[in-house]
């Protein structure tokens, strides 16, 4: 492990987590929970398999990651964050918030996985009708589907498709992020090519107020 050689907590922290890919591995483990090596590799497009193995060994040595043997039928080694590694969650959240303005720089060749919507969901969406029955919204912003659930005042994200979802949002990542962040209203997002099928009320329930569709009187729908 390379070191800055400085007696400073920032420098000491970067000695451990400053190498390329390290924080993205933390991101994946926070999103997925205990994961197989192959799951981590699929969630990190562009990483070489030997580099992933090296980073995991370094993170294990630093006390950020530990291995566990999963019982049958999985019967393979899983990697999970230690308590010390889990303490990086607010660091990742702060970096994600700081990076939101940079998301305007979108290149079609950039990799995107639906699971990376977990932070925007946590930052921007809320259950505005907690007393109503739960709803689910499937999001397809690439090759991977995810589902947003609103239930009892909480909004969460799970991986995978849900054919029984109350609504489905389909479109390119920048359009989805613009809708979720409230920078574009639902009606405008649809005019710009975002597709919404199923219950629009389910979608409106979780959007920031600025992102909800305009009502007949021009005001935001409740």
UniProtKB/TrEMBL annotation:
InterPro entries on file: HTH_HxlR, SCP2_sterol-bd_dom_sf, WH-like_DNA-bd_sf, WH_DNA-bd_sf
Gene Ontology terms, MF aspect: DNA binding
Superkingdom: Bacteria
Keyword Cytoplasm: no
Residue stretches making up the HTH hxlR-type domain: 8-107
Keywords: DNA-binding, Transcription, Transcription regulation
Protein name: Transcriptional regulator
Organism expressing this protein natively: Microbispora triticiradicis
Origin organism lineage: Bacteria, Bacillati, Actinomycetota, Actinomycetes, Streptosporangiales
């Amino acid at each position: 492990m390379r070191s800055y050689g400085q007696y400073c907590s920032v420098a000491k922290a970067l000695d451990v987590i400053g190498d390329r890919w390290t924080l993205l591995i933390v991101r994946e483990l926070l999103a997925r929970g205990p994961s197989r090596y192959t799951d981590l590799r699929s969630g990190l497009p562009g990483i070489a398999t030997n580099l992933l193995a090296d980073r995991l060994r370094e993170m294990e040595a630093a006390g950020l990651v530990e291995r566990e043997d999963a019982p049958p039928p999985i019967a393979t080694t899983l990697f999970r964050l230690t308590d010390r590694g889990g303490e990086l969650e607010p660091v990742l959240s702060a970096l994600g918030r700081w990076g939101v303005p940079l998301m305007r720089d979108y290149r079609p060749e950039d990799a995107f996985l639906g699971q990376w919507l977990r932070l925007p969901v946590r930052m921007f969406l809320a259950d505005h009708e907690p007393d109503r029955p739960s709803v689910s919204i499937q999001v397809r912003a690439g090759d991977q589907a995810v589902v947003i659930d609103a239930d009892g005042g909480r909004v969460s994200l799970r991986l995978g498709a849900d054919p029984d979802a109350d609504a489905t949002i389909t479109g390119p990542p920048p359009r989805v992020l613009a809708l979720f962040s409230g920078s574009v209203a639902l009606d405008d997002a649809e005019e710009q090519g975002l597709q919404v099928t199923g219950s629009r009320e389910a979608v409106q329930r979780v959007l920031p107020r600025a992102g909800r569709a305009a009502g007949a009187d021009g005001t935001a729908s409740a």
